[in-house]
Amino acid sequence: xxxxxxxxxxxxGNEAAAxxxxxxxxxxxxxxxITPQTSVVEQLSAWVESGELxxxxxxxxxxxxxxxxxxxxxxxxARVFTATSANGxxxxxxxxxxxxxxxxxxxxxxxxxAMAAPWNVLNDQQDSMSVRDAGWIQLYCRDNQEILDTTIxxxxxxxxxxxxxxxxxxxxxxxxxxxxxxxxxAEQVDAYLPPYEPLTVVDPDDPRNIGPVTLADPRAxxxxxxxxxxxxxxxxxxxxxLGALETIPAADAEWSELTGRExxxxxxEHLLDDAEVxxxxxxxxxxxxxxxxxxxxxxxxxxxxxxxxxxRPFPVDALRGKLAGRKLxxxxxxxxxxxxxGPICGDLKAALYGQPEAPVVFGAVCGLGGRDVTxxxxxxxxxxxxxxxxxxxxDRAADWLNLHL
Amino acid sequence: MGTRExxxxxSMSKPSAGEAGRTGDWRANRPVMTxxxxxAVKKGEVVCQLCWAYCPDACISRGVGPVIDMEYxxxxxxxxxxxxxxxxxxxxxxxxxVCNVGEGSER
Lengths: 405, 107
Ligand code: SF4
Ligand code: SF4
What we know:
The complex is a heterodimer.
Chain A: E1 7-12, H1 13-23, E2 28-30, H2 38-50, E3 56-58, H3 63-75, E4 80-84, H4 86-91, H5 93-101, E5 107-112, H6 126-129, E6 137-140, H7 144-161, E7 165-170, E8 178-183, H8 186-192, E9 209-210, E10 219-220, E11 226-227, H9 230-259, E12 267-270, E13 277-282, H10 285-298, E14 303-308, E15 310-312, H11 316-323, E16 328-333, H12 343-352, E17 360-365, H13 375-390, E18 399-400
Parallel strand pairs in A: 2-3, 2-4, 4-5, 5-7, 6-7, 13-14, 13-16, 16-17, 17-18
Antiparallel strand pairs in A: 1-8, 6-15, 10-11, 12-14
Chain B: E1 12-13, E2 29-33, H1 39-43, H2 50-54, E3 60-61, E4 67-68, H3 78-82, E5 88-92
Antiparallel strand pairs in B: 2-5, 3-4
The complex binds iron/sulfur cluster (2 copies).
Residues 33, 38-40, 48-51, 65-66, 82-85, 87-88 of chain B line the site of one iron/sulfur cluster (SF4).
């Protein structure tokens, strides 16, 4: 593939992720293969082997080590990339928190897959949802073009805020499905991504302890310089995540100036303007919801779609604004907070609590472990929710789609 | 909050004595060195020094024989474990009557 030309081609989601990492000129890659992420790693290692990608590819014995290699390489100023799925992400969990707390701008693609047990390699979003609180930015993609564009944007966002970013996309549904993708030129990406300037000082003549014991209260270091306590470090981290509510749309807008493609920043929408019933989701199920909304409109229901692109930070103000005055928001989660409800549904209810013009919010759980989700089922779920609302129901348990107990 | 003198949102410090506080006050067992048993003392040269290399608090100075700074020795016992000559014994602080943190270094 020539570096100088914009190329329109067809590729699977995993190849789009690998292509983005290559275009971002990553310097260190460490990853451990796991279905359905494997072909990201295979593609990148092939490029490193052939010399097409001048990067270090570090082979490791586990996902925990993969992210640890990325943490150390990022600490010394390298642009790094990794990718994983499901139990691989769970295995790296300790380091997921470390990467965020150390404020390292690591970009990690997650080919979303169901968590074991029982063993299952197919799609849902339980893996990344389970680490939503770790302090990473999480962006969810709808198609392969968005995977490529978002992975490049992720470096811009991560390095500006010093916060790691997970680019999440549905396993198999996107990772292994081939679709048209426009590949930007190396010049476009170079113009978009300035070099990474690390926060860490790495100089043998002026050494540092990095991420040392940091006690509860601020205190003076050995030189008498007052340093943050643990709680201040965490408050600054939260400020950075909330700052991403501006950085993510800005990165998307600048990408759009360069390539003509923008993805909505924090959220995206379809037929939302006059919608009374709003279907809410993250990831590729949002694309199916656009078809469902069109079918509902033919049926006479004013339906629209509100897609969540940025799940962390959660775009509270945008969601409040876009949902004000609607009758019903029906949230489709491909994950569950066991003993409670779908994570997006719960977060949306919290965001809307006490808002004077908030719609009723109902949840639906779908697609766990790769269970088929069809447009007809989405439509039926919307019709059940509309009927419940007409019966005066304002709160109910999640509707499990296509469940046969 | 963001204006603290360190000017950094991450936790980063210069390696120096006391960076993690006076770790000597964590100590329950004190390493007691029998100089005559130490290989460095026996040879009269800076040899072995395994205790210095392994001490996680970097509170042992190289020498004939090595010197432990009790202000920062946290009493983990690693030096005692690695010493090939069994020259370092871990003795409960209670056996010393008082904890000597703040009284400066001792051999
Ligand atoms: S017990 Fe030994 S190894 Fe442990 S801190 Fe004290 S001197 Fe160092
Ligand atoms: S490890 Fe033991 S023998 Fe070696 S230098 Fe230290 S005290 Fe001496």
